[in-house]
Amino acid sequence: MSKTKLLFVIGTRPEAIKLAPVIRALRFHSDYFETRICATAQHREMLDQVMNFFDLRADFDLDLMVPGQDLFGLTNRILRGLQSVIPKIKPDWVVVQGDTTTSFAASLAAFYSKVPVAHVEAGLRTFDKSSPYPEEMNRQLISRIADLHFAPTENNRENLVKENIDERKIYVTGNTVIDALLHCRDKADHSHSTGMRHLREILDDDKKLILITGHRRENFGRGFEQICDALYRLAMRDDIQIIYPVHLNPNVQQPVFDRLGDVENIHLIEPLDYPSFVWLMDKSHLVLTDSGGIQEEAPSLGKPVIVMREITERTEAVEAGTVLLAGTDTEKIVSETTKLLDDDDLYQAMSKRVNPYGDGNASDKIVKAFREISIV
Ligand code: UD1
Ligand code: UDP
Questions:
Q1: Which pTM value belongs to this model?
Q2: Residue range(s) defining the domain that contains residue 254
Q3: Number of folded domains in the chain?
């Protein structure tokens, strides 16, 4: 029997984190599967950090990122790049993850090339195409194109069924981010990384650590200004310390460094390599973020998350009580954070919930599904 050939298209940091365990699991079954990676490099440094940590090498690197890129140019460059890569590999499947421009454009390129698409992390919905923007629409469009859907939760599966997607093509797997997180925690000593050394220098063990990240397009402008104002006010407390690895997007860097660059109790640092970030998350008291992946990871480490978005497609965690939606209103962020800092019962309740996104075996379930399909 010939091997099933899978082409993984990866553009950004979270896609690499969430696909690394899937590629690893498939490579463990190399009698049945051949895996190839095409990096669009929609992200450059932030993608390379993850690829290095997970020992992933791109077979093709389109090297597409340009500073301050826009959606039109990026989509166009990905389509053109894959137009030549797909025929060279002739894959049985193109595998994409999540909701980025890389995942959407790669799905479209596969469709134009008449290659079936497998979608990892399918079925998440806000049903509001302006938030997250453009990710909600990217994810819906990928579902229209995909032939195989790996849904993290039962709720995600139901969303797909309501959209008339054939139930036989949907597998509920949990989220592969938990596989990545557990692998990272268990992997041998990484305490000598540059990121970790720097963190040890700035961390004050006597203070509660609040970890911040943010990058959503719908928060650019006023949203980020309000978030910065909230952080500025919180930083006045002397029992906390704020650490913020700032995303490299210039639309984030500018307001954050302008408003918070000189605030004593706030450390603005570069994006961290994955193991250093996981280590920092584990050290933190709570996390304030608009990130998708961090909403899914932090509960596994028992860390409450305040989500600085008006709406989330990760509704399970809100229902489970591990994350709390605060939006970007300054008052609301300050008051919810203050409550969690001062009310120990509330803090304990939020930090002890079960993570609804799985227990770290999503990749094995994906491999099993590919095995079933290739036997039929
Ligand atoms: C992208 C995804 C978003 C995902 C996020 C993860 C889209 C439309 N957006 O948003 O869904 O949540 O990645 O972080 O697909 N930059 C660098 N170096 C890097 C990465 C980014 O300099 O390694 C800067 C560049 O100026 C780049 C800009 O950030 O042009 C924006 O990158 P882009 O991928 O377009 O958007 P993100 O906001 O990162
Ligand atoms: N992350 C990282 N270094 C950082 C910040 C985040 O490795 O400095 C990881 C984090 O653990 C999570 C992922 O990046 O797995 C989230 O990526 P991001 O927030 O950029 O994208 P999203 O998940 O919102 O699409």
A1: 0.97
A2: 194-351
A3: 2
